[in-house]
């Protein structure tokens, strides 16, 4: 098992790697005049972090290391591909447009700190279970937490990937323009993709619980869940949807916001 000093070195190395990665993306965004490309590289950034931890933890149990790296890469690269296919060739996301307008000529450097370094720092903090799951040589076998974590990850990945695919198909039909999707997973939660994203991070945490002191990484899925529910996910998106889709109020009244459940008549949503 690596020492506390070694763990600090691993974390600092991953922080440096992520910041270099985000700086490179920032430079590309300046040339493209589109800070929204940062969203494309959010998922792949965690794949980078997982590989850094993999390389710097030679004493870790190899099967668990390969498991966590495989899961993170599958999730991160799919998410990056999905967002890239959706966003590239379109205008900058309205959030970044608003910030660009507010910052004026200072946006080039404001975006470095407000968008790219902030997201890089959050990426580093949230990636903690990916390091914890890889650093120790014991237990040298897959535990019940590994299996439960992988199962929970699969549940979350399915919700996110299928939810994204269903919404893409819905939007591709011109007859649905301006309409609210209420079928498939979207019948049971207004944000199956966000629910799935949060769920799979709890899966990573469960895998980390196989390791000594794995519980210390619990802040990671908590932060991710809060971000998706209250900060950059559901709350921010629904502010815009309420303004642009007249039927969205009825959808809110009958469909759970985050956690899946059967449609209901009461306006109270979860």
Task: Fill in the keyword field for this structure.
270 residues; 11 helices; globular
Overview of this protein structure:
This protein is mainly alpha-helical and 270 residues long. The protein has two domains: 1-125, no CATH class; 142-270, no CATH class. The chain is 69% helix and 0% strand. The longest helix has 29 residues, at 4-32. The chain is globular and about 55 Å long.
Order of helices and strands: HHHHHHHHHHH
The Cα radius of gyration reads 20 Å
Uncertain regions spanning at least 5 consecutive residues? none
Question: What is the distance, rounded to the nearest whole angstrom, between the alpha carbons of the first and last residues?
Answer: 43 Å
Described by the principal axes of the CA atoms, the overall outline is globular
Write down the oligomeric state.
single chain
Count of separate DSSP helical elements:
11
Strand content: under 5%
Helix content: 55-70%
Write the layout of secondary structure elements.
Blueprint: H1 4-32, H2 42-56, H3 62-87, H4 94-103, H5 107-126, H6 128-135, H7 144-172, H8 192-208, H9 219-231, H10 234-244, H11 248-254
